[in-house]
Give the backbone structure.
Amino acid sequence: MEAFSSHAEGTLTAIKENSPTTFAVEQNVTTMPSAKTLTLDSKTNRILLIAAVFDPPPAGAPPLSNGRIARGPMVPGSFSILMVAK
C-alpha cells in the first residue's frame, strides 16, 4: 500500500508500507507551489494535483486565523492540473 502527501510549498511525498508497522518515504517529487489538493487515478496509477500562481498578499495583510500567511488573488489563466506518473 502507498500513501501520498502534497505540500503547498511544492512537493509531493510518496510513502510505501513495508509491513503493517513499517513505512518508508519512497520518493519526493517537486511540484508547482500551491499544488496541495490531489487525487489518485487508480486506473492509470497517476496522481493529479491542482495548482495556480497567486499574486503577493496586500501590504499589511494579517495572518489567517490558522496561522498561515494570506495570499493575493489567483493570476488569471494560471490554473493548472499537474499529472504525476508512478
The mean pLDDT is 91. The first strand starts at residue 2 and ends at 7. The beta strands are 2-7, 11-19, 22-30, 38-41, 46-51, 80-85. Residues 46 and 86 are 6 Å apart (CA to CA).
